[in-house]
Fold this protein.
Amino acid sequence: MKKEGMKCVSCGKTAKKAKLRFQGAEIDGWKCSCGEEYFHPEQAERILLLNKILTKEYKIKLGQIRSNLIIRIPTELADALGLHKGENVLIKAEGLKKLHIEAA
Ligand SMILES: [Zn+2]
């Protein structure tokens, strides 16, 4: 989004580009001198999605291709984290029953 300013709906002045706090994260948006804040819609949506998945656990059945086990990443998880086919992730054992997977 390239808009430098946007018209404030509550006072009619121009809200200026700013970094805003939204649900514990910092995102782009516009802030008016009257105190009104407007959040960047896509960034706000992404934070909402992220906050939703952070409270969730997924039970996934392991698949197998030849001798390798495969893990399917649920779509909402991949979307929220911005993971795509062909990208690399780091995987590390953290114990006998614990795996850590990190977007590389
Ligand atoms: Zn205003």
